Amino acid sequence: xxQGKKILLGVTGSIAAYKVAFLIRLLKKEGADVxxxxxxxxxxxxxxxxxxxxxxxxxxxxxxEQSNGEWHSHIEMxxxxxxxxxxxxxxxxxxxxxxxxxxxxxxxxxxxxKCPVFFAPAMDVDMFLHPATQVxxxxxxxxxxxxxxxxxxxLASGLIGEGxxxxxxxxxxxxxxxxxxxxxxxxxxxxxxxxPTYEAIDPVRFIGNYSSGKMGFSIAxxxxxxxxxxxxxxxxxxxxxxxxxxxxxxxxAEEMFQVCxxxxxxxxxxxxxxxxxxxxxxxxxPVKIKKKDTNLVIELAPTMDILKEMGRNKxxxxxxxxxxxxxxxxxxxxxxxxxxxxxxxxxLNSLNDEGAGFGNTNKITxxxxxxxxxxxxxxPKEAVAVDIVNAIANMNTGRIQxxx
Length: 404
Hints:
Blueprint: E1 6-11, H1 19-29, E2 33-38, H2 48-55, H3 74-80, E3 83-89, H4 91-99, H5 105-112, E4 117-121, H6 125-129, H7 131-142, E5 146-147, E6 151-154, E7 160-164, H8 168-181, E8 189-194, E9 199-200, E10 206-207, H9 214-225, E11 229-234, E12 245-249, H10 253-264, E13 269-272, E14 279-281, E15 300-302, H11 306-312, E16 319-326, H12 330-340, E17 345-350, E18 361-362, E19 364-368, E20 373-375, E21 379-380, H13 381-394
Parallel strand pairs: 1-2, 1-3, 3-4, 4-5, 8-11, 8-13, 11-12, 13-16, 16-17
Antiparallel strand pairs: 6-7, 9-10, 14-15, 17-19, 18-21, 19-20
Helix pairs in contact: 1-2, 1-8, 3-5, 4-7, 9-13
């Protein structure tokens, strides 16, 4: 899967740099073309000569050669590569990546790269768990980069915990898996809904909810990366999407119903992650309602159940995925929704789980129509989107369990 792929390998100043020799050998064995970039401190842990010999390419450590002035273009390298892999990456380098501090050829190339970026942290456990490091990791994930999480084990300090750079064999398998998945939805038409709806009370007030749309937008981005033609129906949110996603903005539940049902007819896969209002004011005041000393009573009417209507009209070859945000009897309610709405999968969020809900992270359990349940740890929504899309990709092959 990585035969002939061009891989930029960034190496930073960590004791784990010794593993890079084995990593390069594995990449070359798979047929990859490897170009190594090293920071100045990385050269203290393993020599450029060693890595140049293994990669069969001169190692680049600076922007130009002092002996003859030969320039190493970070722009050209960023365009050349199919993947930029930074392994090991230190806390210092992650901070520079997260904040755009281009003080080395490696960071300049990272900022110019058009290809996917994978980063494999390596550091002591307390450094890895420090809030500053975790914030930088979240920033890098929010930029669309891919984390190869460190493992737990004995560290160079003698402590035991998180921070060990993942083993070279696992890193190579991660890259191979990514290349396999990159176009697994090529040509498929996918409809994703995201965000809240606003139900007007008068010209300036509405009933709404706390949904940010981040989950739905992340799912849409993941499908687009993997070759799908994505239509994103978005409620009123302040999120941006990639150029290769067709976005349709709506405000109310009725508007979302009308747009989603029109797109639904031609969709192969539908993921309804929007937090659509269940009720809307029966009457909307044409003028701003004035504040009075007496109570204000607003009579509400139920909105159209978009997911149920889709389930009722689902074609044999369509996949329908719904979301259930629950606060009690979570699995019981989610399973009932799965059956009642004729879904293939339900993604369950519980407000009782730390890290789930309307923030930047989510914690999900995927329930299938066959009665299977697959629970995932809390993680950034970009990573949750990968889990959800992987589950959809594999649901008809009986391989969802391999994603856990």
